[in-house]
């Protein structure tokens, strides 16, 4: 009965203090919701590719900047090093898959047949031991097969790719939590590489193109690390990137570490995560949880006077201090459990939003396992201990006589609370400063001058057309009102380009190659430094960095390295995102009627819906219903900085929660502080202090905590954001306005939070305080 009475007493206390209860439970629930979502996300990110049975034996071969090699390197290494059991080469591309009158764009993945021997992926239909061994066999994903053959019976069907009719020999199950994205279609690397790569010599001259990810599977208990120096030396003898000193390092990365390795290894079919992003989100979630703990401590301390009276009565009735301390800790644990249950419900509701922002597929339900529930119980008990120990110590150490006299509240100095409130506002200002900096940088990147004109341009992919077909489509599109001009291209900044490596004057040269017709330079709006007026058919344009790397004078008219006359020189332009510095670039002429990758279409206005519909209609009519693939430059720019935008959005959400919890914390502190100072306020008013003077004194008392937090926050913001901004070629300055706006926002929130209570205290009748 005593336990039931104690529990009821706690419920009665919560009922009498509804604001205290609501703030505590709200703060805890929101914080735990973020923790649940981000713990689930973090666990999933660190578990990528952990399900493969051979994971300890699989490695990806990499150099210092890339993880792609020539198609015959795997064969050579397997023959030379007995530790290697097998290898898998990959290549990804986009093609159109056709059956009857149905045409669908497909993500194609070429692979060696040992793909299913190396990795633990499974087929919904088909035999993994037989697939990918000939040209006459295609694997389709379940979703793509349903779209292509809605009538079912997939293994009885045939699909046409690149003009080749291929029987469906298997259906892929989704790859799950892997670095590999489930492709629409999988084909044999050996049989299909020359056709989809667009070069018959890709395998015959198997060392020329370094475009293929290479995975090695070692024999059981084998160790290849000791052979890496020898492997490097061996490749230097015949493989051009190492022979010509374009690559200098060679390493193998375990399969389970590839996902969180170099972001340069990413592609459309291979995902690469960000360890920095994961750890940042998790750290901020822990800070939000810490905020909730601080709030609980502050709120509980603010209620310490009423709780102390209750505890004093219990002490007088014979209850020990130890028993009271334990009771308060149990109350804290119960409050945490209630908050956790609400947080789980909120996490389930917020899960779709979280998945959309981070472009992931977490499921909170995955946490409901026996081991996770055990960890959760231990964690919530520890959280209850952490939150309850300080309030319990403050309340139970009070002597009953002090509580009866009313001197207890004057003896409570709230040192811990002041430090904790200062810490809350320190983190809040840091989050505000970081969010402002990121938002300004992202906005600048989306509107940065890249060295060419991106306005009102479309990139239309036409890779499946020959030169005559492309010319016919170009003439057709030029008849559309709203289409100003069209350039035939093989390589466009922000989309794709070729590259060429070699040696010039005993040093390695790496050039980025862009090809376009006679309208290309003008249509793209490249800034000209020098125009030689050279209209030779093979005349090239070079950027400043290429001129410098090739050691050419400013007035050069011929490039000996490329054996071409120089049409002119242009300013450096950024052909990748702003984390990459300008590289040596060459713009080569693309002759009429020659095969091209794409069109760059200059529109007369800003992406008119009518014009886009007419382009789509003309393309479909010309190609017999083939799916159109076009993008705007704005779309690509937003895709390039999608990760940064997601990080900024999540940080903004955390900042709002931090602001809210900080405001609740300082509200609790203001409540307790004003209660403590009620007699002092009354005395000051009796001796002549005006309401305004009392109000200023009360508000300034809390402002000083924010000012102290601001002083510490400024160097923290500068350090964090200076490091973050350093990765970008173009970046905003860390202006004083960022720090000022972050500090003023926090100050305004603090003042607005405490102003109401301070105003009521300043305008109260001093007689009432003296009576109490």
Automatic annotation (TrEMBL):
It comes from the Bacteria. One of its GO terms (molecular function) is transmembrane transporter activity. The chain crosses the membrane at residues 21-41, 277-299, 324-350, 370-394, 415-438, 650-674, 702-721, 733-755. One of its GO terms (cellular component) is plasma membrane. This is ABC3 transporter permease protein domain-containing protein. It comes from Alistipes indistinctus YIT 12060. The keyword Membrane applies. Residues 283-398, 654-766 form the ABC3 transporter permease C-terminal domain. Keywords: Cell membrane, Membrane, Transmembrane, Transmembrane helix. Residues 21-224 form the MacB-like periplasmic core domain. It is a multi-pass membrane protein. The keyword Transmembrane applies. It is found in: Cell membrane.
